[in-house]
Amino acid sequence: MGADALTATTAYRAGLRDLQAWFGVDTVFLRHHDSHHRSTTLIAEWPPREHVPDPDPLGVVEFADADPVFAATEHLREPLVFRPGSPAREYAERVESASGMSAVSMVAVPLRSGPATTGVLGLVAQGDRQWTDDELSALKATASLFSQVQARVLAEDRLRWAARHDALTGLLNRRGMTDELTARLAAGRPRFAVLYFDLDRLEALNDVLGHTAGDEFLRTVADRLRRFSDDDLLLCRWGGDEFVLVLPDADTEDEAYVEACRLLMSVTARVELAGDVVSRTASIGVAVARPGLDTVDSVIAGADQAALAAKTAGGNAVSLFTDEIRRRTALRNDIELHLRAAIENDALLLHFQPEIDLPTGRITAVEALVRWMHPTRGMIPPVEFVGIAESVNLATELGRWVLNDACRTFASWRRRLGALSITLRVNVSPAQLVSRDFVGVVAATLERHGLAPGDLCIEITEVAVVHDVTLAARALAAVRDLGVRVAIDDFGTGYSSLSHLKTLPVDAVKIDREFVAHLDTDADDHAIVGAVVTLATAYRLDLIAEGLETVAAREALLELGCTRAQGYLYARPEPADTVYDMLRVGVLTPS
C-alpha cells in the first residue's frame, strides 16, 4: 500500500472497498487504538453509512466502558469471530443503533506493532457467515499491511509534531508559532494581542541549582501558561527563557495590558525545585497585531522590544509597544545595518569642543566628538550610535577611525598655524582600550601624522574600566609609556571613583556635567565638586569641568579652585574649520 500521512485516508477507503467486494460482506471498517487514553476510534469504513447518529456509538469507544466485544479488541492477538446468537448482546445493540444492521456476523483482525495491538480490521455481514482458515490467514496478512501504513503515518505525525513543537515543554516552537501567526495576520482577520514573555536572570537559577532544575522551572512556566490559555496553538516557547502568548480576544492595548499583568502574577509565583522554593521575575512586552498590515517579524519584534524596555526599566513589569519604541528600534536597526559601511566609507565626521583656561580664556585643549551625517536621518549624535557600536563589536573600528581623523585634523591645524600648544583629547571605548593592538594603533597613528605623544590625551570613562580594572590599568600604563596622557571622563558617575584614582595611571579627571550644571545653586553639587578638587590636588592631577553653561557656575568653579572647563558658555562642539578659526585667535570669552 503506497500510502503516507497525506494519502492514508484515501488508501484506507480503497483497501476497505476492495475487501468488501472480495469477501462479499456488507461493510468493512478500520479502527485505531489509543493506548494512552485507552480508547479506539473509527478511522474508515466502506461503504460509508448514509445516516450517522450524533454522537456516533461507533466513533470513539472508551475501553473502560466498552461492551465485552469492544473490550476484547484492546489487546487482541488473534482474529475474533462474532456470529448471530452469541451472548454479546450489548455489542449487537451498539451496531444496530449505529448502522441499523441486526443479526450480523463479524470478524475482527488485530493490527499489531511489535507486542502492541494498535487497532482492528473488521468485516461485517448481515446474517450468519462462516470464516475459513484461508480467509482468516488472508485477513491477517491484509491487517499487517494496514498496520504498516498506520506505523508510517504515526511516524510522520511524530516528525511533524516535533518540527512544530518544543521538546522540553510541549508548547509550539518558533516555527509552529510563526505558522499560526501567519494565518492570523491574513487580511480581514480580527486584531489580536501578542505577549512576549522573557524570564529575568534564569541563568542564575541554572548556576545555583543546575540545568535540570532550570528545565523543570521552564516546564512549570509552560504549565501555568496552559492554565492561562485554553488553546495550545496560542502558546509558544520562542527560545531559551522566552515565551510568546497570543490573546485572540484582546484587540486593544488596555485589554492586553490587563491580561499581561494577570499573567505576570501567575507565572512568577514561587516554585519548589530541588528542595528549594524559588521564583523568577519576568518582563512582558505587549504588541497589538493588525492583520493585513503587520508581519510576523514586525509583531514579534515589537513585543520583544517592549519586553526589553520592561527589562531595562528593572524587570518584573509589563511594557506596551509604543511609537517611541518603534522609532528607537528602527533607528537601532538602521545603525546596526549601516554603521560599518559608514566607518569604512568615511561617512562620519568630527566636531571639536575647546577646553578653556578660565582665568585667561586661553584654549588649552580640544576634544574630538564623532558625528554621523546619515543620508536620510541627517546628523546623528554619538549618544545614538556609539553604544550600538559597542554592542555589535564595532567600537574598536569606530575608535580607530576617530583617533586617525582627529590626529589628521590636529596635524593640519598645526601646519597651517605654525605652532599649536594645546592637547588633543580623544575618547576611547572599553573594547578599544583592552584590544590587543591598542597601544600599537596609537603609536602608529601618531607617527603617521607626525604628532608627538604629548600632543594626545585619551579619555576613558569609569564604566570602561570597572569590569576589569587590572587589565585596564595595564593598557593605560602601556599607553602612558609612549608619552600619551590619560584622563578619566565623566568622573563621579562610575563606581569606586576613589579607588580608581589610586589604581589607574591617569593624569587628569574631568568632572561630569551633572555636578557642574547647578553648581551655583545646589549645595550638594558644590560639596561634591569641592571634594573632587581636593582629591585632584592631593593626587597631583589636572582637573577639568564639563558642561559649563553659566557665568555663575564659572565663578563657583574658580572659587573652588577648578581653573579649566569646557561647555556652551564658551563654545559648542563645532566643525574643524570653525575650531581652526578659534585656535587662530587662541582665546575665547563667555558668550
Automatic annotation (TrEMBL):
PROSITE patterns per record: EAL, GGDEF
Signal sequence coordinates: none
Residue stretches making up the GGDEF domain: 190-323
Recorded superkingdom: Bacteria
Gene3D superfamilies the record matches: 3.30.450.40, 3.30.70.270, EAL domain
Domain named EAL: residues: 332-587
InterPro entries found in the cross-reference section: Biofilm_reg_signaling, EAL_dom, EAL_sf, GAF, GAF-like_dom_sf, GGDEF_dom, Nucleotide_cyclase, Rev_trsase/Diguanyl_cyclase
Protein name as it appears in the record: EAL domain-containing protein
Species whose genome carries this gene: Rhodococcoides corynebacterioides
